[in-house]
Amino acid sequence: KFVYRKIGKKLETFFGGRLMVMGIGGAALNPEIEAFLRMAGFPYLIGYGMTETSPLVAGGPYGDTSIALCSTGKPMPGVSVRIAEPDEKTGIGEIQVQGDNIMLGYWNDPEATSETFTDDGWLKTGDLGILDTLGNLHVKGRSKSVIVLANGENIYPETIEHKLNRYPQLVESLVLENRGKIEAWVYPDYDFIDGITTGQSREQRHTYIISQLEEIRKTVNGQLSSASRLSRILERREPFIKTATHKIKRYLYTADSMPGSSS
C-alpha cells in the first residue's frame, strides 16, 4: 500500500502538486484503473450527467468511503434519481431524474420536450442503471442499445464491450446480436500487436490475432451469464465511426453489414 501511495503522490505532482480533486466522466473508467487510483489515494470523482441536467446528476461526495467502485457515487444535492421499470432479475431500468437543475424543455420543440419527460415530471435520460443499497448510481448503458433475446432476456452490450476494451490488444469493440447469438466486432491495436509479432510473416501475424481473439472470448465469457456469452469475436480492420464525443455510432452497424472486416 505504501508503494501505491507513493505513486499517487507522484501523480499529484505531475498534475501540478495543487490538485484538489480530478473529475472523470464521459465514458466508463476501466475498473482496474479506478482500483489503482483508489489504492494510490489519488483524489478523483466519477460523475454522471447530461446537458439537460446542467450537467451533473451524480458524483461524489468526495471523501465518502461508501462510494462503490464502478459507480458514479450519490445523486447531487437537490437531485432525485429513480430507476423506472427495473428488470426483475438484475434491477436495471431507465435512470430518471428530477430537480431544479433539470431543463424546462427544448427550445421551440414541445413535441421533443413531451417525449423526454414522464407524465409526473421526471426526465427520461435514456440511460440504464441501478441504485445500490448505499445509494450509489451504477450506469449500465443506453436503453436504445439493449439487445432483447427471443427468450425475453436483456443483454447490455456496453457491459461486455467494457470487459473487451480492457485488453491491450484491442482499441475498441462493438457487441451485436446476430440471429439470436451475441458476437463482438473489434478493432485491434495493430501497433501493440506489431511490437509482439516483429519479424513474423503476415500469415503468422494473422494467426496470432485470431488466437488472441479466441483467448479473449473464452476469458470474457467466463465473466458473463450464459445468455450474454459471445459466440465469436471478429476482427475489424478500420476504426468505428464515432460521434463528436468519441462514442461509436451504433446505428450505422449491423451484423449483416460491417465494412472493412474479416472473420
Report what the structure shows.
The chain is an alpha+beta fold and 263 residues long. It has a domain at 147-262: GMP Synthetase, Chain A, domain 3. Helices cover 24% and strands 26% of the residues. It has helices at residues 2-14, 31-39, 110-116, 157-164, 190-196, 202-221, and strands spanning 22-24, 44-46, 48-49, 56-58, 79-84, 93-99, 123-131, 137-142, 147-148, 154-155, 170-178, 181-188, 230-236, 261-262. It has a 4-stranded antiparallel sheet.
What CATH architecture of the domain at 147-262 would you give?
2-Layer Sandwich
Write out the CATH superfamily name of the domain at 147-262. ANL, C-terminal domain
Overall radius of gyration: 21 Å
How is the CATH topology of the domain at 147-262 named?
GMP Synthetase, Chain A, domain 3
Biggest sheet, spatial arrangement of strands: 5-6-7-8
Strand content is: 25-35%
Q: Would you tell me the structural class of the helices and strands?
A: alpha+beta
Largest sheet: 4 strands, antiparallel
Helix and strand pattern:
HEHEEEEEHEEEEHEEHHEE
CATH class of the domain at 147-262: Alpha Beta
Q: Outline the low-pLDDT stretches.
A: none
Give the mean pLDDT.
94
The total strand number stands at 14
Helicity range: 10-25%
Give the overall form. globular
Distance between the termini: 44 Å
How many alpha or pi helices? 6
Summarize the structure.
This protein has helices at 2-14, 31-39, 110-116, 157-164, 190-196, 202-221, and strands at residues 22-24, 44-46, 48-49, 56-58, 79-84, 93-99, 123-131, 137-142, 147-148, 154-155, 170-178, 181-188, 230-236, 261-262. It is α+β, with helices and mostly antiparallel strands and 263 residues long.
